[in-house]
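Please decode residue identities from the backbone states below.
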């Protein structure tokens, strides 16, 4: 699904959202310069995998530094590493710098498990609409419904920050 298809799906499902246009932002440093409407609700997204090719999309508050080792232990997963750009393109139809939970709607084999930061529960989340030139603000509950409706698993988890 591309941006227009995402927006059409939201309208079809009656999901309320706010779309903020901005210059392309491929990382948290670039998005910080954009002047987001709700910066504390913006999500940082990581696409990771284990050695058995199990894939996970982690969405955390943008100001957090994630400890992947701690997350792996907490969730009982194998050692994690960042997925290759070819895997990102093949599974989510995205390029590096475009990772978003909405990319899971392109996961035709339903291989990706989405982990959302517990801090988003009951509130707003900001994610790219499969296009890093905009941020889509919607409720985390509605995001979960979309992903679950597609057939992918979603879990809320507390993410521990990496010690500096």
């Amino acid at each position: 699904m591309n941006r227009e298809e995402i927006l059409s799906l939201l309208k079809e499902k009656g999901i309320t959202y706010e779309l903020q246009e901005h210059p392309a932002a491929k990382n948290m440093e670039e998005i910080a310069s954009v002047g987001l409407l709700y910066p504390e609700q913006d999500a940082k997204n990581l696409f990771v995998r284990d050695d058995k090719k199990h894939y996970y999309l982690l969405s955390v508050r943008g100001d957090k530094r994630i400890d992947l080792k701690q997350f792996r232990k907490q969730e009982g997963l194998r050692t994690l590493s960042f997925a290759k750009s070819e895997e990102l393109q093949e599974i989510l139809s995205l390029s590096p710098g475009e990772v978003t939970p909405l990319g899971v709607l392109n996961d035709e084999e339903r291989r990706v498990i989405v982990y959302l930061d517990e801090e988003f529960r009951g509130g707003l989340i900001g994610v790219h609409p499969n296009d890093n030139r905009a941020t889509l603000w919607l409720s985390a509950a509605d995001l979960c419904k979309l992903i679950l409706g597609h057939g992918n698993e979603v879990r809320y988890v507390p993410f521990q920050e990496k010690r500096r």
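Observation: DSSP finds five helices and eight strands in the chain.
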